[in-house]
Amino acid sequence: MCYALGDREASMTTEKSQFWTDLDLDLEDPEFRAEFVLQSVRIQTVDQVINALDDARMSKDLSKAELARAIGADPAAVRRLFTAHGNPTLNTLSDLAAALGLRITIEPMPQTEARAVASVLVAQTKGKAPAKAPSREGKRKPAAPGRDGAATTSKVAAHTPKSPTARGRRTTVSV
Fold it and tell me: 19 burial class (0-12, 13-18, 19+ CB within 10 angstroms)?
């Protein structure tokens, strides 16, 4: 990124921030890497569903309160769901989707993403590190990436699929 900060501009475009340096070091730990990948996929998935539901809500000219009343939920809870960091239940998401004439389905990840995610998670369950992953003293818990997706830009984090197809065919109807 290039920020218009005068003399600091050049250094900000060439230097890696301490956050990314620390994250790279943390990702060398197989336990941290597995948890980071799992949290990244989880957050990305929830964000995609919530964003799709919010888009559908707006396209039907429904307020958040109207949508909440349609499913018998507290309007404040639905408002928080669409505007804050939340962890909605599948029941709530399914109810919201139904009120919008939608359903939530599962689709396969693109093959390269699926292999990358699975290799990290499966290696962890077998007690093996994927590729190079020396252990590190002073392990820290992974910080869950925020809704802005900042931490999901890591090379091991899940990325948004570029295509809604898997092996050339559509396998689901996304909300």
Answer: exposed
Global pTM reads 0.61
| Domain ranges for the chain | 32-131+171-175
| First vs last C-alpha separation in the chain | 32
Instruction: Give the C-alpha separation, 124 to 118, whole Å.
Output: 10
Structure tokens at 105: 């389905």
d(CA 154, CA 121): 16
pLDDT at 55 over 80: yes
Residue 73, CA distances (Å) to 34, 50, 51, 66 in order:
35, 16, 19, 10
Asked whether 64 and 57 are in contact (CB, 8 A), the reply is yes
Give me the architecture of the 32-131+171-175 domain, per CATH.
Orthogonal Bundle (1.10)
Q: Tens digit of pLDDT for each residue in 122-145? A: 877 776 554 544 444 444 555 555
